[in-house]
Amino acid sequence: MEIIVNGKKIQLPGPISVGPLLALEQVRMPEMVSVELNGRILRREEFDRTILGTGDQVEFLYFMGGGA
Amino acid sequence: MSLTEQQILRYSRQLILEQVGGRGQQRLLSGKVLIIGAGGLGSPAALYLAAAGIGTIGIADCDNVDITNLQRQVIHHAEDLGRPKVESAAARIRAINPDVRVRTYGFRVCAANVMELVRDYDFVIDGTDNFAAKFLINDACVLANRPFSHAGILRFEGQLMTILPGRSACYRCVFRQPPPAGAVPNCAQAGVLGPVAGVIGCLQAIEAIKFLLGIEGLLTDVILTYNALPVEFRKIPVHQMADCPVCGKDPVITAPMDSDQPICDMEGSK
Ligand SMILES: [Zn+2]
Questions:
Q1: Taking CB atoms and an 8 Å limit, are A67 and B269 in contact across chains?
Q2: A2-62 fold
Q3: What was the ipTM of the complex prediction?
Q4: Which B-chain residues 207-226 have CB contacts (< 8 A) with chain A?
């Protein structure tokens, strides 16, 4: 199964929910990112029940607090 | 009011741009931009906005220039060490362009003063370095209906988005609330390359200029991310959320509030 994460294709053995994908992509804590699935920002409660399928486009938007 | 001969020379390289011209330059000269944070992002933004002839530039920052600032905060010089940042920034802006009126706010921007502050300006640039301030500025600008540029930087990366309140996604539409303290490192802990701040701060200045000129194609409903290591720019589309706590249909945030969350502290790790 192929999905697109942050613009790059990745291969997965089968369907996976957003929670485990975060772990797979080495996001240490779900609080570190906002997750957008096919253009829609997911609520955190949805992470574990949202199953990704072939062709889904996922964006991890990282909190970036710096500026000074 | 028409341009003086000196102004025609000074701005000649942008006056010849079809999208600027004499009328556009007048717009810039009567424009007011507030820069909150005279640091890594605010420095390049302020320098370029001054050079472009933005008529009024406000600078808000409560810090003094420190030696650790000089690696990236290019508006401050070695001779400014210990000086309030608003003073050294104002001096540099005036030195670049006497057309610019500089207003300085040498205090901490907080819930009690932010609305009054942003209301005086046409466009706001968020150059702050912590989530409490970034969410405060988002809420105030949305509530006061002031367009602004949000940005953040860390290590070799930066990102920004422009918000036209009520018309495009706001910072909270994407990042609902500040991350828990310690979840995300800041630049003091994780570091940042100076020119990365320069790239993002310059992009913020461009957004301000485009807004004042009425040029289409602002970074609205999109987050532009920049990664200097593989050298990659990406535009990620985002949308206004009906349930956004501040710009949604039934907002729960109706006044700016100070966060009691401390600026995150942890050893940098992603
Ligand atoms: Zn919003």
A1: no
A2: Ubiquitin-like (UB roll) (3.10.20)
A3: 0.93
A4: 223
